[in-house]
Amino acid sequence: LGIGHLLARRPAQLSGGQRQRVALARAMVRRPKAFLMDEPLSNLDAKMRVQARTEISELHRSLGTTFVYVTHDQAEAMTMSDRVAVMMGGRLMQVASPQVIYDDPQDLAVATFIGTPEINTLPARIEADGGLTVLGARWPVAVATSTGGQVTAAVRPEVLLPAGRGEAAIGITGTVRHVEMLGAETLVHLRVTGAEKPVVARVEPAVGARFRPGEEAAFTVQPDRVLVFAADGRRLKAQVLTDAPLQPQRIEALHV
Asked: Which of 1, 60, 131, 235 could be joined to 21 by an S-S link, Cβ 3.0–4.6 Å?
């Protein structure tokens, strides 16, 4: 655990992070059949948390023992787990691999909890023929449900691509008012009239450098990457309508 140089010290002389490692060591020497870790990294600073995540993952592989890891930090759950069980309000919402939880969430609460930035959600409606209308524009998506009505359409930030890079996509245009440059990625913030939350597009830095406040920009969304959720949050099965006409959705930018 990298604390051999601290063997001469007493517990009161150790930092919070060092005490966490001592606690883990005390559990390891018992050679249990399974480890239950309840927020083991909660007392560590941000840098130490990243380091400790790697160390615990390496310990898991070397010990070959089951780890049951409880956390409220989605980054820990996604980066360390073979399987994730998402629990909310005492209910087990979904159990799957981290990638499946991210790409194929079965509930809107799971979809919005997993992922940074948060998944984009837009109010939508299922028409009588099963077609999907999002903010007044018909999208080439059909939803398998016995009843129509109000639903939620959701797309991940990286699914929004600058126009010209996607094929057979839904068009979204608007005026850029805020660009968030984060080094490895750039977030373009947009506001859609009628949506409660801002829409965020994640692009590569070289692509993000093309956007300027006040200029008009266009994005596309692949229809097969659109997720649809019922009013009660459960996921609805959707399929792409290949022959449906595309209708760009006008948006205005969010000023932050």
From this structure: 1
Residue carrying structure tokens 């109010």 = 123
Query: By mean pLDDT, which of 65-79, 133-147, 201-215, 221-235 is the weakest?
Result: 133-147
Distances from the Cα of 251 to the Cα of 129, 140, 188, 194, angstroms: 26, 19, 13, 10
Tokens describing residue 37: 């870790």
The whole-model pTM stands at: 0.82
* pLDDT digit string, tens, across residues 62-77: 888 999 999 999 889 9
Q: Is residue 242 part of a domain?
A: yes
Instruction: Judge whether 227 lies within some domain.
Output: yes
**Residue indicated by tokens 């449900």:** 145
Total domains in the fold of the chain: 2
Q: For residue range 16-30, list pLDDT tens digits in order.
A: 778 878 888 888 888
